[in-house]
Amino acid sequence: xxxxxxxxxxxxxxxxxxxxxxxxxxxxxxxxxxxxxxxxxxxxxxxxxxxxxxxxxxxxxxxxxxxxxxxxxxxxxxxxxxxxxxxxxxxxxxxxxxxxxxxxxxxxxxxxxxxxxxxxxxxxxxxxxxxxxxxxxxxxxxxxxxxx
Length: 148
Hints:
The protein contains 5 helices and 4 strands, in the order βαββαβααα. By secondary structure, the protein is α+β, with helices and mostly antiparallel strands.
């Protein structure tokens, strides 16, 4: 084949340190916009960013040259620095781990809607229940002792 064609979309999920409700409604939208800007600056496509006070979801498109672990590291480092310097919340931190799930083209709109409706969704379901459901649905092996 003389050329390369890609459709690499990822649903990323990560939480604040110890799932502390650091992310205030007052600056939540600014953080989400900043997260999208980080992805854009890396050459990725931020398709949707959302979340609540203790975690975020991103739907992003990446190139084949992106290394997922590097993308997540850069997103977390840069956004933590932004929160420390811009919001003046020195205690803010992200958990070390993350969830990353591939998204097929025919599921992208459903994932976007899911991300945009996080606040309503979490009125009836905890982050822990939500994350476990993602792992089970994707058939990801895990040891619950190391999830939280």
